[in-house]
Amino acid sequence: MHIGDLVGFALYEETDKSLIGTIIDVDLRVEQNPLFVVERTKGKSEALIPVVEEWITDYDAKNKKLVMDLPLGLFDEE
Fold first, then answer.
1. Tell me, what DSSP letter sits at residue 53?
2. Calpha distance 56→59 (Å, rounded)
3. Do residues 8 and 25 make contact, with C-beta atoms less than 8 angstroms apart?
4. d(CA 62, CA 75)
5. Percentage of the chain exceeding pLDDT 70
6. Mode of pairing for the β-strands spanning 65-68 and 56-60
7. What pLDDT sits at residue 76?
8. Contacts of 43 (CB under 8 A, 6+ apart)
């Protein structure tokens, strides 16, 4: 699997299983630190989320679902 194959996947938070949004792009400008570009469900804004393998807790290719255990405070409260 290539990181770009995750475009279109729904991204969920591990802690409360809430839907964060949909991965709409992967920013590879800094190869050592790729970022998911996520269209958020709350606020309809975009968020950049670092692609850290250790944060990925579940990957479901059939259902296009990715679950990540994101650090507390990564997003501003809306």
1. G
2. 7
3. no
4. 28
5. 94
6. antiparallel
7. 58
8. 78
Residue type, 32: Q
The residues facing 48 across adjacent strands are 37
Residue 63: alpha-carbon gap to chain centroid: 15
Alpha-carbon distance 1 to 75, whole Å?
A: 27
- Cα–Cα distance, 9 to 42 (Å, whole number): 17
Tokens coding 17: 């299983």
- Provide the 8-state DSSP code for 78: -
The first and second tokens of residue 15, run together, are: 């802690």
Give the separation between CA 75 and CA 78, rounded to whole angstroms: 9
Q: The tokens of 19 are what? A: 């839907």
The whole-model pTM stands at: 0.89
Residues in contact with 72: Cβ distance below 8 Å, sequence separation at least 6, in sequence order: none
> Which two tokens mark 18?
């809430």
Give kind and range of the element (H or E) at residue 74: none
Place of tokens 């299983």: 17
